[in-house]
Design a protein that fits this description.
There is one protein chain. The protein has one domain: Rossmann fold. Strand 1, helix 1 and strand 2 (about 35-40) form a beta-alpha-beta unit. Helix 5 runs parallel beside helix 7 (about 200-215). It has about 270 residues and is α/β, with parallel strands linked by helices. The termini are far apart. About 30% of the residues lie in helices and about 15% in strands.
Length: about 270
């Protein structure tokens, strides 16, 4: 009987799926059995990265349900990819097959750890009914953005010393449909045992600590374990340096001249 296995459940969007794939590669590199779960369509997208580290990951390709796949909205006033909303809604259907998978493994291993995107919280909710299982939310956004988004949303419950000035508003960043979807998913977040941030405590430790002060995170563990980035030398069969102008720019900078770069809406 294996002592522990890890199940990873990503949200079916590029920036979310890729981060959890990188995290899965990291976990599996320690010889921990790692299972990556999703619809067949999205698993195939993950495999197309062709990372050598993926060889240690076991993929569970669940049947993709039928859903509308409209083209992108041209000349939209919003930059949010609303045409992907049907696939987001379809992801809720992973709940039953994933629950069956968990119960199957719960009798074979001593401990199950589920790492999931917060937007897949409804899918992993049955973890709470399995005595030897626990779940952790992997947050794809920075701790900085996570904290200030919730702090603002719940009415600034306490003062923040040294609060940055002129923080840009999140208004207009999301469609009403995805806002409703997020609200639904966060109803199931109380089942989690803690949060994992793809960040560095040296840089964002202040905001990780302040997240602990929010009532919604009471008695929840908070970890910053990154930033987790792909090892470009491990991308099989590709010269990664020639693919990204941003990497060429970084290569030209002096030693210790770049502090932190994030593909976040607020932090660079």
């Amino acid at each position: 009987m294996e002592s522990v296995v890890v199940f990873v459940v990503p949200f079916p969007a590029q920036g979310h799926l890729n981060q959890l794939l990188q995290f899965s590669c990291l976990i599996s590199s320690y010889e921990i059995p790692t299972h990556f779960v999703g619809f067949q369509t999205h698993i195939q997208q993950a495999k197309s990265r062709n990372l050598q580290d993926m060889q240690k990951i076991q993929f569970h390709e669940l049947p993709t349900p039928d859903f509308e796949s409209p083209p992108p909205v041209q000349n939209s006033t919003s930059k949010f990819p609303t045409h992907l909303q049907p696939s987001f809604e379809a992801s809720k259907q992973l709940h039953e097959p994933f629950s069956n998978l968990l119960h199957e493994f719960s009798n074979k291993v001593k401990r199950i750890v589920v790492i999931h995107d917060p937007l897949m919280s409804s899918v992993v909710q049955d973890v709470s009914s399995i005595p030897n299982a626990e779940s952790y939310a992997f947050n794809c956004i920075s701790a900085f953005t996570q904290f200030f988004s919730f702090w603002e949303a719940i009415g600034r419950p306490f003062p923040v010393e040294g609060m940055p000035k002129n923080l840009p508003s999140m208004e207009g960043c999301f469609s009403s449909e995805i806002m409703n979807f997020m609200a639904y998913q966060y109803e199931f977040m109380h089942y989690r045992s803690g949060d994992v941030f793809n960040s560095c405590r040296l840089i964002e430790g202040t905001y990780v600590d302040m997240l602990n002060k929010l009532e919604m995170n009471a008695n929840k563990k908070q970890w910053s374990i990154g930033p987790i980035l792909p090892d470009l030398t491990m991308v099989a069969g590709k010269d990664s340096r020639s693919r990204y102008k941003s990497l060429e720019w970084l290569d030209k900078q002096g030693p210790k001249s770049v502090l932190y770069i994030s593909l976040d809406q607020r932090l660079q």
